[in-house]
Amino acid sequence: MKDKKDFGFGTQIRKSPYFDATVRWGAKDFSVYNHMYIPRDFGDPEQNFHNLINEAILCDVSVERQVEITGPDAYKFVQLLTPRDLTKISIGQCKYVLIVNNEGGILNDPVLLRLGENHFWLSLGDSDILLWAQGVAVNSGLNVKINEPDVSPLQLQGPNSAKIMQNLFGDEILDLKYYWLREIELENIPLVVSRTGWSSEFGYELFLRDGSKGDLLWEKIMAAGKDFGLKPGHTSSIRRIEGAMLSYHADADIHTNPFEVGLDRLVSFDTDIDYVGKEALKKIKKEGIKRKQIGLILDCDPLKGPNTTFWEIIKDNKIIGKVTSAVYSPRLKKNIALAIISIEESKIGNIIDVKTSSSVIKGTIVEKPFFDPKKKIASGKI
């Protein structure tokens, strides 16, 4: 393992409360996400995948920064930010939502947590929604306070995660339902625990509310998971692509609208709720999309790792789309990919050419997700 000093970290990028623990437990490489270092490498990514789907992994995802929205008009303001109808969200519930700009472009796809009547967190992908929300608030006429709290999540994911949580918190934690949260303490460590996670597997997120206790929390979880095969890990590109989970800046960005990536269910036109981008989304829906996200099986030798550039999709010497995420799935024994392509070429079964960094290969358009399409594993319905 590299010595910590060899990583070359600077002071302008933040370290998580779990930074020292992840280095101590074998983190070999880091990248930057939401202005913070995130461990990306604990060894063989295929072994990390198998650890996830067979036992459990603990991931430092404190880069999922929280935007906290409070104040008398917090609920009204949160609804203004998202096209998803929130009229039925209960206190203690989580919702997957989209945040779009005035043109209907996706700015983020966070999980929304409702901690109180007018107390919300947006648990973010990689974009500056804190600044966006503060900007929207300026001219909203609503009485809200928006800030980034001292909150740093960990992900405990995999089939053994419930046993580990039971070991930590007792039997009552097993009652926590999918996409619900609970405020709780673990030996004076203040937490919010939710039945969520960015893995497509059964799991939990533990939101630490006191960054000074990050090292202590990490070690307590690892100790509780020792007899259940718990390993330190990182978010698995293999598993998330199998599950067709979006990675912001890869599979969606400010130039992508919800309908192109099949998230129509997160856009409400049937009520009188108002939100940023509503008129633009109405127009897009009426006119129809010109491109859409698809699943691909790539016909080539097993990819050595995820793609790090967008690969052009070619037909008749014209670019008709791009591969946004690609990886080899050892479980499916196939190269799988997410791509966005012109609507005319998006039919299931179509064969297209993909220009990779080294060659041109064939790809076949297939249904997505590639595995567990009903999300029975993550929801615990198996």
Please report the total strand number as a whole number: 21
CATH topology of the largest domain: Gyrase A, domain 2
Into how many domains do the coordinates divide? 3
CATH top level label of the largest domain: Alpha Beta
What's the helix count? 9
Instruction: Tell me the strand percentage band.
Output: 25-35%
Report what the structure shows:
The chain is α+β, with helices and mostly antiparallel strands and 382 residues long. The protein folds into 3 domains: 149 residues, Gyrase A, domain 2; 82 residues, Alpha-Beta Plaits (2-Layer Sandwich); 79 residues, Elongation Factor Tu (Ef-tu), domain 3, CATH 2.40.30. It is built from 9 helices and 21 strands. The longest helix is centred in the middle third of the chain and has 11 residues. It starts with 18 loop residues before the first helix and ends with a helix. 44% of the residues are buried.
Write a brief caption for the model.
With 382 residues, this protein is of the alpha+beta class. The chain has helices at 19-24, 45-54, 74-81, 129-138, 161-169, 214-224, 237-242, 278-287, 376-379, and strands spanning 29-33, 36-41, 56-60, 66-70, 94-96, 99-100, 106-108, 111-116, 119-123, 145-147, 152-157, 181-186, 189-194, 203-208, 230-233, 291-299, 311-315, 318-329, 334-342, 351-355, 360-366.
